[in-house]
Each structure stands twice: as C-alpha cells, then as structure tokens.
Amino acid sequence: MKVTMFLFSLISLFSFSAHAAEYAIEQVKDNVYRFTAGNYHSVFVTTEQGTIVTDPISPDAASYLRQYLSQKKLLPVSYMLYSHNHTDHVSGGEQLASDKTVVIAHQQAARDIVFTRLPTRQPDITFNDELTVTSCSTQVLLAYHGENNGKGSVSYLIQPAGVLHVVDWIVVGRLPYKDLPGYDIQGMISSTKAVLNRYDFEVFVGGHADIGTRADIEHYLAYLEALYSAVRDGMLAGKTLAELQQSITLEQFSDLKMYNEWLADNIKGVYQSLVDDSYFNFRADLDTT
C-alpha cells in the first residue's frame, strides 16, 4: 500500500512538473501576474476578496492555473474576464471558474460564444462600452474600442498597479500574426491610438509576445501605420500583391521578431482586407485588369 501511494505521488509530481515546462507564472507588478501557456499569455490579479483572472486559454491551461492557485493557497477565482470571442483564448473557462465565479465579456463576444457553442463557461455579465470590476483596492477597467480583432475585443487597465493588458490587437516586440486572420487593420490602428491617448500605465502585457512599455506600443503602432500606408498606396499605384511583397521592406522595423518570417504575410493580410472589406477590386479609379 505504501509503495502504491508512493508511486501515485511520484506520478502526480512528474505530471505537474512536466506541465511546468509549458506553463509559467511571473509577477508583473504588485498583485498582477502573467500566466504563460506556450505562446499565449493571460493575467491574474490577487486580492483579499478573491482572484481576478482573464482568459482561461484552453482546458489544460485552465486546469493548470486552477491547481497553481490552490497550491499557492490563493483565493478562488471571483471574476473571470474574457478578452474576446476567439476559441484559442477563452476555451476551458469551466475548468477554472466555480459556481461562485462571475464571468464577464463584451456583449459581442458573448453573443458569438453562444451562437458558436464554444466550449467554455458562458458569460454571466455583458457590457457595451466599458465596465469596472472592483475587488478591495484593485480596479480593472474593461473597455471596448471598436473592431480590431475578432468580436468584442477589449482592453484591461489594472489599477493601482498601472498595468495595461490587451490580447491580439496590440503585440509588442513582434509583428502581428502572419496574414492577419480575423484582424481589422484599420481598427487595430484606431484602437491602439485610443488606448495610448486615453490611459496612463507603466507596464503592458499582451496576449502574445513580450511585456513592454508605452514606447513599445508606439513603435508597434508606427509599424501598423507604415504597413497599411505602404500597401494602400502601392495598390493605388496599381501594384499587384507579388509586387508589393517584393518592394515593401519597412526596414526600420526589422528589430521586431518574425520580421523576416511574417512581413510578406502581413502585406498579404492588409492587401486582402482592402479587397474584401474596402472593395479595392471594384474601385472605378483603379486599373485592376
């Protein structure tokens, strides 16, 4: 019996340690922590009334975080806040939330989660423009800045720590993902400007890539604007996608990760959005033959 229990304990310890290679938790500032699951990040905030978490990411990631919070004797999850509707960020909510957890999402994200029967905990509370979650002295301001990535994508401003968290539509230290699937490039630019103009913060945490500062976001915004302008103006000059990918270099942003790997894809993403969303192929003033 003792041998069996020892083996069970050893297996359990090994399983938890094996997960640790994929998952990581680090303190960002004060009571704000970043949870990493592979290439994905979310945040959680500890308070004396409960733990506030953002995206569960996946069932496995959510289970790991629940075990971590229990192991560290942190209070159960009082609020779970969804960043938007995409399954690769908000799946697995039922693994992290209890029956006492309040789940919050923007109304557009919540609607899509219901319509698509996404496997996660359904939101209990939805909002349109902004909503503030308060727990002891901690406040998390959720705000919607218009279309940018997916449906109902919001920003989080966590005070008094001064931490800004945005998933997908702001990425610091790296190019946006490949050919911008699910992205609204115009909305990305306007939403990022809105965040910079509205909020004072010390630290930025993205849903992917690096932790950064206001200056990093400004550099990212400059890249988005340069990328969009180069593709738009090239299309107005009659260039094909292949010609744009050959001629647009944006070397001033070569410091960003995935510059060599994804620049041509980013160009394709903007090009396709100008065709699909802005109907450049129907413009009477352009020669599209």
From TrEMBL:
Annotated TM spans: none
Signal sequence interval, chain numbering: 1-20
InterPro entries: Metallo-B-lactamas (IPR001279), RibonucZ/Hydroxyglut_hydro (IPR036866)
Assigned keywords, A-Z: Signal
A Pfam entry, by short name: Lactamase_B
Domain spans labelled Metallo-beta-lactamase: 39-208
Name assigned to this protein: MBL fold metallo-hydrolase
Species in which this protein is naturally found: Alteromonas oceani
Lineage: Bacteria, Pseudomonadati, Pseudomonadota, Gammaproteobacteria, Alteromonadales
